[in-house]
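Researcher: Predict the fold of IS200/IS605 family transposase.
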Amino acid sequence: MDKMDHNAHSVYLMYYHLIMVVKYRRKVIDDPISERAKEIWERIAPDYGITLEEWNHDVDHVHVMFRAQPKSELSKFINAYKSASSRLLKKEYPQIRERLWKEAFWSQSFCLLTAGGAPIDVIRNYIETQGEKKR
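Model: Structure tokens for IS200/IS605 family transposase follow.
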């Protein structure tokens, strides 16, 4: 079993699997854009008590596994992340602006799953293999 996280008053182990989709499922995510999106995540996440565990992408969505704390405000964090990353990615990568001119980068909706139902290694493996060509 994974080592528990803790604060002054509690111990916990809270893993989440988040899937964020590009607006209109536009196929704009490549390795450099994914890497930049991940950097933005790692800059904002600590303010919300969130720790990145795994990151992977396909051309139109990203998969993220992260740990949170009981006090983490997940929807606030996700909205803050999507807003900041949308602005920065569109500013830094002109090819995105061509595909999503006045639109946000991310779709408003997202999928957030608690990762308690499957062993973390199973989920980690799933995220690591996303975007690979099926053999």
